[in-house]
């Protein structure tokens, strides 16, 4: 039986709710993503609360609310106690995202939600979308379970595209249908419209508000604006307003190796850091924006949903001005103000709750201080009672053995003997005529001998005495300065360190929406057409669809149901589906004698080898493989591994051919050149294709070198069973004439199963393709030797 795989959605199927899925592989439970929405709705976490204690590991895909928002809450409230795996940018930027969310809520409300398998291999791969975004590949017994949601195949300014296309035939692929019904314009067209819209608003005297996330897609927008402002020499100010804006940019500057090739290359060659921005000002407080220039400006403010944060307050101020523009770059979550404003047509007025925190004064302050004193006294009394109980327990109820003030009346020894006999424990203080009650605890200052326990390693200690409490960790982390070690900006730290008594004052108002509202897709996800193309190329054996509207999920499901050899699943919340592979996998034990004679070859992420052996069973019923007693039958030739040009050079030199490396190619003699193209080990573990290209004019050296190279490949246990000839003729002034895919079977040509090519056979094949109308303009042949994992072919093409 194959590897057992079950998938149970906990949130985010047939809707756009946060993502959270339980994936069990041979009994090992993975929680992949642990998201929450901007409403912090506890009801969404009910399915997670039921399975939190059973989770063995957590995999986080992206550092935004929809993928990790509920993780702190689940660890605190649900007892989730499992190792969490993510890329470093996801961890760092996710931390900043959660702090920004916490600060935004704490500033306007009493928010305290975030106060504090054997043989399984997990591997992260590039997903695009967000910095450090991950496609998770979980491998067990040679079968791959791939989790890829919100991926982006497009290369952007700060990110490379996903490597999902390099995967081939995984056992299970879990992906989303979020964008299945959407289409996107080209990047150039989208950027042009985006920048022209902003510039038109600024030139008209209006302000531009971009509600953004804290540390995700905002990075792409910052680079676009920075580059455009530098090209056009614009003077309109750009502000990035967030509680963690400067900390975010400080982190980003150290993660260039996680970004696009162009950014990394620019830093390597000229030490040019793309995030040393000249036109963007970082702000951490609304008052800083109020004190800035009063003219037209661009403000990127968190939070993207407009439910809280600086974007919420700025929208309330700017919405009534027809010259202003609110430009949404991502779809708002359901039920949020942003989603309401993105409706068609948008509302003309919205009700908003404006909240702010103010210090307590007068009678309220006095009442608060008295209440705090009362609570402090109750805590002290409670602590003293607990301490007294602990002392009673430590001394025990037995008067004779534990109470240092009681003399054993049945003891005939003198008081001095009593004192001396207890030298190893309590040294009692005795007063004539006074016997304390049995309930008293050491009223006369007893002496306790300090006896330490020792073992072979030294003094025995209690590890709990050295554990740093959560409160201490919070205080130690809140340093001012915003450096790269996880410290925060001064304004952000003040929100946590501020102990002044305060309260939240709220009022509702109706905001007239007269400003322009525009949505442009900068979410960084592949569109529907690309998703279908990529998934068709990956060709999973079983496809599980999650996260997307019911329409999008059904659309993608029906599309792939029409494709053969793909099983499609779209489970509901808490519905467990069994996607165990139909393949059979066996574990066998190889004897040491057999292992010493096995020659392994690298093939993608694996090593393969021919094994000729006899199968038996050990005492514990495990399959055992032993060497065979008779000679092994011949194997069908298979080429495995990388072709090395150095081997070609050494072999040709031994045959008397002058060879040298020049410009990345192997020059053979005066006219012939050998080149190698392709990569045998593509990312994702699939097997690629290599080609040895032989270039030069038709001459004896050409055929000789070709035959020698084929002979070299034959010496590597590879023989040729067929020849594929592809002829393309480019006639000068006569258009294109093509003759493709003529196939010869060597056994029919020469009466044998497998043969090596020689110059005569090549001449025969090439001449058989000459036509009576062929012009003298054809001078060179180009012969490609294509090496595949399980076969071998030669393609002959004619070019001018």
TrEMBL record:
One of its GO terms (biological process) is mRNA 3'-end processing by stem-loop binding and cleavage. It comes from Salix dunnii. Keywords: mRNA processing, Nucleus, RNA-binding. GO terms for cellular component: mRNA cleavage and polyadenylation specificity factor complex. It is found in: Nucleus. This is Cleavage and polyadenylation specificity factor subunit 2. CDD domains: CPSF2-like_MBL-fold. Gene3D superfamilies: 3.40.50.10890, Ribonuclease Z/Hydroxyacylglutathione hydrolase-like (3.60.15.10). Residues 218-341 form the Beta-Casp domain. Belongs to the metallo-beta-lactamase superfamily. RNA-metabolizing metallo-beta-lactamase-like family. CPSF2/YSH1 subfamily. GO terms for molecular function: RNA binding. It comes from the Eukaryota. Transmembrane segments: none annotated. InterPro entries: Beta_Casp, CPSF2, Cpsf2_C, CPSF2_MBL, Metallo-B-lactamas, RibonucZ/Hydroxyglut_hydro, RMMBL.
């Amino acid at each position: 039986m194959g590897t057992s795989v079950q998938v149970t959605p906990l949130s985010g199927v047939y809707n756009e709710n946060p993502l959270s899925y339980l994936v069990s592989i041979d009994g090992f439970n993975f929680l992949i993503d642990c998201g929450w929405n901007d409403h912090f709705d506890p009801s969404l976490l009910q399915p997670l609360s039921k399975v939190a204690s059973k989770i063995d590991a957590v995999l986080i895909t992206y550092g935004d609310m929809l993928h990790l928002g509920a993780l702190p809450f689940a660890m605190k409230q649900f007892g989730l106690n499992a190792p969490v795996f993510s890329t470093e940018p996801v961890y760092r930027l996710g931390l900043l995202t959660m702090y920004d969310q916490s600060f935004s809520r704490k500033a306007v409300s009493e928010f305290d939600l975030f106060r504090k398998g054997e043989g399984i291999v997990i591997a992260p791969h590039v997903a695009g979308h967000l910095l450090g975004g991950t496609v998770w590949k979980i491998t067990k017994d040679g079968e791959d379970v791939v989790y890829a949601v919100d991926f982006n195949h497009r290369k952007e300014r700060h990110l490379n595209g996903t490597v999902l296309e390099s995967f081939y035939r995984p056992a299970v692929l879990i992906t989303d249908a979020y964008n299945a019904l959407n289409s996107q314009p080209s990047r150039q067209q989208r950027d042009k419209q985006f920048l022209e819209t902003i510039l038109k608003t600024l030139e008209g005297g209006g302000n531009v508000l971009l509600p953004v996330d804290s540390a995700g897609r905002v990075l792409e927008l910052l680079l676009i604006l920075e580059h455009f402002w530098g090209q056009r020499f614009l003077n309109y100010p750009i502000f990035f307003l967030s509680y963690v804006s400067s900390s975010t940019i400080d982190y980003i500057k150290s993660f260039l190796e996680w970004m696009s090739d162009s950014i990394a290359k620019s830093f390597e060659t000229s030490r040019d850091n793309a995030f040393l921005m000249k036109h963007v000002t970082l702000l951490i407080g609304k008052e800083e924006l109020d004190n800035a220039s009063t003219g037209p400006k661009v403000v990127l403010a968190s939070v993207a949903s407009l439910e809280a944060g600086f974007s919420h307050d700025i929208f309330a101020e700017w919405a009534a001005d027809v010259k202003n523009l609110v430009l949404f770059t991502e779809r708002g979550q359901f039920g949020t103000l942003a989603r309401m404003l993105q409706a068609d047509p948008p509302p003309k007025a919205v009700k908003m709750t404006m909240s702010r925190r103010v210090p307590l004064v007068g009678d309220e302050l006095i009442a608060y201080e008295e209440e705090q004193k009362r609570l402090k006294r109750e805590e002290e009394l409670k602590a003293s009672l607990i301490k007294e109980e602990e002392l009673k327990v430590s001394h025990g109820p037995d008067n004779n053995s534990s109470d240092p003030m009681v003399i054993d009346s049945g003891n005939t020894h003198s008081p001095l003997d009593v004192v001396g006999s207890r030298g190893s424990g309590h040294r009692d203080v005795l007063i004539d005529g006074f016997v304390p009650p049995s309930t008293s605890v050491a009223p006369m200052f007893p002496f306790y001998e300090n006896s330490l326990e020792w073992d072979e390693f030294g003094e025995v200690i209690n590890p709990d005495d050295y554990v740093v409490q959560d409160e201490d960790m919070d205080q130690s982390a809140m340093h001012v300065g915003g450096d790269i070690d996880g410290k925060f900006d001064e304004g952000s730290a003040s929100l946590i360190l501020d102990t002044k008594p305060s309260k939240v004052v709220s009022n509702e108002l109706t905001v007239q929406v007269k400003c322009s509202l525009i949505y442009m897709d900068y979410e960084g996800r592949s569109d529907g057409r690309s998703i279908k193309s990529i998934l068709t190329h990956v060709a999973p054996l079983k496809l599980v669809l999650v996260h997307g509207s019911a329409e999008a999920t059904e659309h993608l499901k029906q599309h792939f149901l029409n494709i053969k050899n793909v099983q499609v699943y779209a489970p509901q919340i808490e519905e467990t589906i069994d996607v165990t592979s139909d393949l059979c996998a066996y574990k066998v034990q190889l004897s040491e004698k057999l292992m010493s004679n096995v020659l392994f070859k690298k093939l993608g992420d694996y090593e393969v080898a021919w094994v000729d052996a006899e199968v038996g069973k050990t005492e514990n019923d495990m399959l055992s493989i032993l060497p065979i007693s008779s000679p092994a039958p011949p194997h069908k030739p298979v080429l495995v591994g990388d072709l090395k040009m150095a081997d070609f050079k050494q072999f040709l030199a031994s045959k008397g051919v002058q060879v040298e490396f020049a410009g990345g190619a192997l020059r053979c003699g005066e006219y012939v050149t050998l080149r190698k193209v392709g990569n045998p080990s593509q990312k994702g573990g699939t097997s690629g294709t290599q080609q040895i290209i032989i270039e030069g004019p038709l001459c004896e050296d050409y055929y000789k070198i070709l035959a020698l190279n084929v002979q070299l490949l034959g010496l590597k246990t590879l023989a040729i069973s067929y020849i594929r000839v592809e002829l393309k003729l480019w006639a000068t002034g006569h258009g294109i004439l093509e003759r493709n895919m003529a196939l010869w079977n060597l056994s029919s040509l020469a009466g044998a199963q497998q043969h090596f090519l020689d110059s005569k056979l090549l001449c025969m094949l090439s001449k058989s393709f000459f036509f009576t109308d062929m012009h003298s303009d054809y001078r060179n042949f180009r012969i490609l030797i294509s090496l595949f994992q399980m076969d071998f072919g030669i393609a002959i093409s004619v070019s001018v």
